[in-house]
Amino acid sequence: MKRWMTMMTIILIFGIAAACAKPADKSLPASAPPQAYGMVGEQRIPFILGSYHWNNTIADAPPPYKLVNSETSAVELVGDELLIEFEAESKPERVAAYTWENKTAAPAAVSGNRLLLPREPGTYIYEVVGTWPQGDARYAFAIRR
Predict the structure, then answer these.
(1) Quick one: which H or E segment has residue 106?
(2) Is the pTM of this model over 0.90?
(3) Would you state the pLDDT for residue 71?
(4) Of the candidates 144, 79, 71, the residue with the CA atom closest to the CA atom of residue 115
């Protein structure tokens, strides 16, 4: 009888604890920034996530010219404009882009989430920076004309 009462008390305690437990809040921010990609017409260009500061998490990555191998990962493009897309419910507050040449970054022409692409033939390495209330993230990709 004593064993049965002890067992029932334990079950009751676990039952109360489970009933009082707070359900997972799906609106909580993710622990990492959203994935990103570019669109030129119907062509999707994947971006590589680089360094970021997101919800008190800091991740450091090499610079874009080391993240992408421009010889093998550059995407052949036809088009003058790349649409920057993020796989997130909320859009970034700010988007910036840079071109990398000879280990040096230079600002690229961005209007909203549209990146103007060069018309001259060559391989180009880009860095895209998105800023949200949760933090910021850097992405890299390469294109070839």
Answers:
(1) strand 104-107
(2) no
(3) 66
(4) 79
